[in-house]
Amino acid sequence: MKAGRLERPREETGERNQDGRPRAASQEDIAHAEFRHDLPARAARRNPVGPRDRDGAKPPAAGGHGGLHRDAFRALCQSERRVLDVGAGVDRAVGGEHGGTYGKMRIGRVRAAARGPRHTDEPCIDRARGRLLVTRRTGRHMHLERSRCGFARKPRRPVRARDGPDGPEVSRVSPAPPRTQHPFYMYEAIREQPAAFAAVAARVAPAVSELAARLAACDRLYLVGIGTSYHAALAGEQLVRAFGGDLPVQAMHAFDFALYGPRLNGRDAVVTISHRGTKRYTRDALVRAREAGCLTAVITGDGPEDRARADVILQTVAQERTSAHTVSYAGAVAALGALASQIGAQRLGRPTLGPATLTTAVPDALRAALALEPDTALAARHFVSSPRVWLVGAGPGAIAAIEGALKILETSYTTAQGMSAEAILHGPFQATEPEDLFILIAQAGPGQVRVADVAAAVREIGAPFVVVDDGSATTLRDGAASWSVPPTPEPFTALTCAVPLQLFSYHLALARGTNPDGFRLEDPRFAKAHQRVTL
Question: What is the reported pTM?
Answer without folding.
Answer: 0.70
